[in-house]
Amino acid sequence: MEEKFATTKKAGFYGIPGNIFLLIIKATVGFLSNSQAMIADSVNSAGDIFASLMTFIGNKIASEPNDEDHNFGHGKAEYIFSMFISISMILVSAKLLYDSVITLIYGSKLQFSWFLVVVCIITIATKLGLFAYTKYAYKKHNSILLEANMKDHRNDCIVTTFTLISVLLTLANIYWFDSLVGIGISIWICYTGVTIFVESYNVLMDISVDDKTKDLILDIANGFNDIQKIESIISTPVGDKYLVFITICVDGNMSTFDSHKLADNLETTVSGLDKVYKTIVHVEPKL
């Protein structure tokens, strides 16, 4: 767990200087050349800086151990700050969409510059490196903050590739594509923001564990011969894992010692699953 928080902290920290650098060069070249796509790309980088800050802060809070006021730790901070990231994405996309549509209607004043091409190439190279790192870290630790950053870096690579295409098309006097790319960027950012928002919202609203994990729990419980019936399986998220409550029915004549031993064994086995933080088993006698 400590390794996960340390890796997420690095991902957030590395993203801040990288995105500040990209914001400066994109905004400068974008406004000088009147490229709507590059301006949109620079605003996207500003959102990336905010996302990196939220990742850094959210991870710091989430890494705090459990205490008397927070018995199951502070893991949900990941989802709260991921929601902040998603809301910022949606707001930024709305502004970009408006500006791009206005430019498409009234015409673009884009001026071709090889600096635009260079900035696009630098951005793609930088974001590919950040994407590769966060993808590796996400697959290893399965953190929603890392997932949000990974998708953000991936989106930036795609977005800037289309920005590069729009810039090169101006050599053939095709200017309208620049505005279309700005529109496409805004829609893409909005879609990603909504996706992250829904995922974060579901966890904060105590969504239950996925069906695959629930089936694994059922298979484990059914493997105990002394369990006559599985009354219920209830779960609630704790960070990126789940607290699982299982109610089982056993022979009413079973001794208290044996029923508790059975419950302990079931708790230990289920808690060994990747997505399970802790398991609590309640035993009901069945006559």
Tell me what the structure shows:
This protein is mainly alpha-helical. It has two domains: 203 residues, Alpha-lytic protease prodomain-like, CATH 1.20.1510.10; 76 residues, 2-Layer Sandwich (Alpha-Beta Plaits). The chain is built from eight helices and three strands. Strands 1-2-3 form a three-stranded mixed β-sheet, with helices on one face. Strand 1 and strand 2 form a beta hairpin. Helix 1 packs antiparallel against helix 2 and helix 2 packs antiparallel against helix 5. The protein is elongated. The two termini are 43 Å apart.
Search tags:
single chain; Alpha-Beta Plaits; 2 domains; 8 helices; 287 residues; mainly alpha; three-stranded mixed beta sheet; 69% helix; Alpha-lytic protease prodomain-like
What are the SSEs and their pairings?
Elements: H1 2-33, H2 36-62, H3 77-106, H4 114-141, H5 144-169, H6 176-204, H7 211-222, E1 229-238, E2 241-251, H8 256-270, E3 276-286
Parallel strand pairs: 2-3
Antiparallel strand pairs: 1-2
